[in-house]
Input
Amino acid sequence: MSFRERYDLVKAECEAICVAHGRDPHAVKVVAVSKTVGLPEIETAIAAGAHAFGENRPDMLASKAAALPDQEWHFIGNIQSRKIEEIVRFASLVHSLYQPHHVAKFDAAAASLGKVQNVLLEVNVSGEQSKSGLAPDQVALMLEVCEQYSHVRVCGLMTMAPQGNADVARDCFAQLALLAKQLKAGMDPAKAQYFNELSMGMSEDWREAVSQGATIVRIGRALFAEDFDEPHAQG
Ligand SMILES: *Cc1c(COP(=O)(O)O)cnc(C)c1O
Output
């Protein structure tokens, strides 16, 4: 299959799952995670209709976004203080903010570039040691930290589910959706209006994520890898 065929299949199935769950068929943005490919593959993806790309290394984000500035670039990787300025320069949405001491740095970088940086807070719903992110009960406090800065806008939450079990993944996504709903209900309306995104679901579990309310899925191998093996069909 070509990128275009894989992308069209993902989009069509995504719409079908939305409809099956009573959601707007266009409620989900597919971010093509391009971290393992170069500019030629990204150009092929653009020709096939993909316009939102995800990168997990600041240097790769910078070089690819500088080469293809008309695309929407998402930063989904680990954040280091000294890379924040570079991330802010190129990212339309940062999915992976969770450290309170990074917020002031994002604010300062965004202010100096004359932008408001849209961010998601990464939550470690599953509690796996290997995963980064806020514990669910720490998110409210992190929101309070972010509220002190006018150049950082929290647009929602992000998580990564444990791999290998569709039921476990679905439960993890349901928990993130519930947490977001509870937090939004307690928010000042001026902040709540922007708090709408749930970034959840990757190649192996994006269907479960869409069924549980994902508004953004981050898909790498299932779009870019010719030999990607579907782990399980949708039940
Ligand atoms: C690599 C990556 C993805 C995409 O993973 P695939 O399994 O290739 O779809 C999604 N989110 C994050 C944070 C990643 O690092």
